[in-house]
User: Fold C-terminal binding protein from Pararobbsia silviterrae.
Amino acid sequence: MAKFKVVITDYDYGNVDIERGILEKIGAEVVALQAKSEDQLLEHAADCDAIMNQYARVGARTIDVMQRCKVIARYGVGVDIVDVDAATRRGIQVTNVRDYCTEEVADHAVALWLSLLRKLPQYDRATHSGVWKWQSGAPVHRVKGRTMGIVSFGPIGRAIAARVRPFGVETIVYDPYVTDEFVASHGAVRVDKATLLANAHYLMVQVPMTSETRHFLSDAEFAAMRPGVFIVNTGRGPTVDNAALYRALVSGHVAGAGLDDPEEEPAKRKQWSPNDNPIFGLPNVIVTPHSAYYSEESIQQAREIAASEVARVLSGQKPNNPVNQPAHTTGA
Assistant:
């Protein structure tokens, strides 16, 4: 009989062999689900010792039925789909996976940026339809001497800054949690939000999802930007108001946008269609399926770290990536 029961709420990796390889060594049984709602979790959560989640929400309803859970391990950085306060009250450790995809997200952000400003999608569509004219992507402007704005200057923001520096842009940063000196040490200038919006020709956004960052960019922010701005969001979808972005794009005030996830975050929905969001009908928008974090190496690392955190906690050790400080050590 297994010593522990570990429930994986959902996954899109094809299998859970990596997780089983790590967790079976401590005597755990791994139960892999494909839950898209808390109702599908309740039965399995009651007697679990640990839960690992990718997209499924682990909220207070699920946490309240847990009788012995010791750890909730999130695949990834963001924990907005875990009720951390409820877990803390129940004495359940919450962990996440940090710094596993910094290079991938920074590469993806820069790829979206260059594709937008060099009009690669427009040229590609034109040539495939038999149009061989440089004018099919006009206007295209020189990058050197323009201003790159970066929102949030954590590891990913700093990696983006390092990548765009050789293009000759001036980099300005909005992040209220870092100092002027820290930003300057990375070759950029820290500014307030209003200055960022007013001056950036290009805006890179990768903020986490919190109550304060929902619709971080909306109608007022788009109106405050310089005409012809390009926007790239490799952070969470709901940080950009897609309805407001659509209006700004249609008016021409925003020249183009690259989104790694639309506001509705399709991976978390039972059913989804691009018809749900008019953004998908615009030719100057690139949308990728929340794939900025992806490489074969980053996926493997995320899975290994998440499973290892569960093994560590169930073995009585401290996690390497704690999100909270539970009041006691059992879920009962």
Remarks:
- DSSP finds twelve helices and twelve strands in the chain.
- Residues 4-100+296-314 form a domain with the Rossmann fold fold (CATH 3.40.50.720).
- The chain has a mean pLDDT of 95.
- The chain has two domains: 4-100+296-314, 102-287.
